[in-house]
Amino acid sequence: QSLQALRTLQDEFVRFLQRYKFGIDEIVTKLSILREDFAASDRGNPIEHISSRLKSADSIVEKIQRKGVEPTFDAIREQITDIAGVRVTCSFVSDVYRVFDVLTSQSDVRVVRVKDYIAEPKANGYQSLHAIIEVPIFLSDGIVPVLVEVQFRTIAMDFWASLEHKIYYKYDAQVPAELLDGLKQAAVTAAQLDADMERLHHEVHGGEAVHLSAASDEPVP
Ligand code: 0O2
């Protein structure tokens, strides 16, 4: 390939990634506005922490190989849905669903897919609510939709996931069985802590509807 062709490809990749950065900016701004608005209201602020990351080129390539994705921008756009990632940490499980509901009911937000690992934790104990969300990005030459993966979780779920992530990488995915068992047990303890905190919170703020599922609108008392 000529140097010129390589430069063009590099420019295209930079612009490709930049759109995901704009997607992150849009979602983080929406969440920051909600956080400030909740804080100014008398309904209490459900958002403890917001973080974000743009997937690295290395990670994107690794995922393309692992999933056997065709190496074209269109195929990557369609099949790698976590290039833009935003994480929202809440105190209570009910807040996780509350923030999810408020964000996803905004008129320019489209929910593409939801994976509720709180309702159905992964085998290793991992819990979080994942939503692939599409938002419009207003560029100088038009509007483009961008996918952002938003992970909603409690502080306890986040604590567990960050330790599990470190252990997974330390052992290069070959985690000894007793550590896996320990992690599984810690996930049960974390879920129990979340349930206890939720109950105590509800006792103090009794009467408010508590949503504990993304799939159902039924309030759980
Ligand atoms: P990072 O560092 O956050 O970018 P995949 O599992 O990635 O092939 P999919 O459908 O994209 O396919 O996965 P999923 O389950 O929707 O979510 C993937 C992301 O969720 C991960 O991203 C993690 O952030 C988080 N996650 C999922 N499962 C676990 C888990 O068991 N432990 C921890 N700690 N995090 C998990 P990345 O790209 O792996 O990492």
TrEMBL record:
Name this polypeptide is given: RelA/SpoT domain-containing protein
Signal sequence annotation: none
Highest taxon listed in the record's lineage: Bacteria
Lineage: Bacteria, Bacillati, Actinomycetota, Actinomycetes, Micrococcales
RelA/SpoT domain location: 52-175
One of the GO BP terms on file: guanosine tetraphosphate metabolic process
